[in-house]
Amino acid sequence: MHVELSKLPMDSFKDLVKHYLMIVLGILTALGLEAWIEHAHQQHAAQAASAQIDAEISQNRVEIQRMQAHDSERMQSLQKLRDILLNDVKTNASNAVISQHIHDAAPDGIYLDWRWPVLRHEAWDVAVANQSASWIDNDQLHRYASVYAAQSASTAILSEDIPKLIDGPKMIDTTLDLQTDNLQPRELLHVVNQMVWVTSEVTHNLDNLAKRVDAAMPGVAPASASTIAAH
């Protein structure tokens, strides 16, 4: 910042005061203009960052609901199969009868197909990195932070829980036995039950995540599951 005033004759103390006041006024004006420009820049950066973060959270919320619909349907299918197998094992049904029941309940085969949404966070990371996040309204910034913290926590919890719920090698071996007509009803029941627990855990985590996002960002939830499925 540079302020240069024209030289004025100073024949008296009054002229000196006038000159001094002009200098002070010029400096204050320049400082005020500079502050206004900086504030306008920060406000624009905050608005741009907020728009990008809002869009990112909205898209993540759409993906959460889409995965909720898929995983819930998968969980119900596996629960139905689990209940059928449980009844067959209890009644000592023959392998032929059990195989037919499996085919009727799962004509496409038995498999674990749970899904977790890709929860994007690039807009948030950029806002933090270029400091535009610090210019966003504090309440709004807190809501954003809550959403991204919920995303990270839910993903971390799921990563820890899944290995505790399912025996991967056993699942592979048991489904292979089924494909080679070497049916082991009780082993298969155990595997399917593990699949049920996995899909149940995933669905539960998605439900909790959706609630936390909706609480932090009211109005961001998609209109309906059918609307998401149509897209």
- Describe the biggest sheet? none
Structural class determined from secondary elements: mainly alpha
Rg of Cα set: 32 Å
Put simply, the count of helices is: 7
Helical content stands at over 70%
Elements, N to C (H/E): HHHHHHH
Distance between the termini: 55 Å
Shape: rod-shaped
**Low-pLDDT residue intervals, each spanning 5 or more residues:** 225-231
Number of strands: 0
> Mean pLDDT score, rounded?
84
Describe the structure.
The chain is mainly alpha-helical and 231 residues long. It has one domain. 76% of the residues lie in helices and 0% in strands. It has helices spanning 13-90, 95-105, 122-129, 138-165, 168-179, 185-216, 225-230. Helix 1 runs antiparallel to helix 6 (185-216) and helix 5 (168-179) crosses helix 6. The radius of gyration is 32 Å and the shape is rod-shaped. The relative contact order is 0.13.
Task: Please outline what is shown here.
The chain is mostly helical and 231 residues long. It is 76% helix and 0% strand.
List the helices and strands and how they pair.
Elements: H1 13-90, H2 95-105, H3 122-129, H4 138-165, H5 168-179, H6 185-216, H7 225-230
Helix pairs in contact: 1-2, 1-3, 1-6, 4-6, 5-6
Task: Quickly list its features.
mainly alpha; 231 residues; rod-shaped; 76% helix
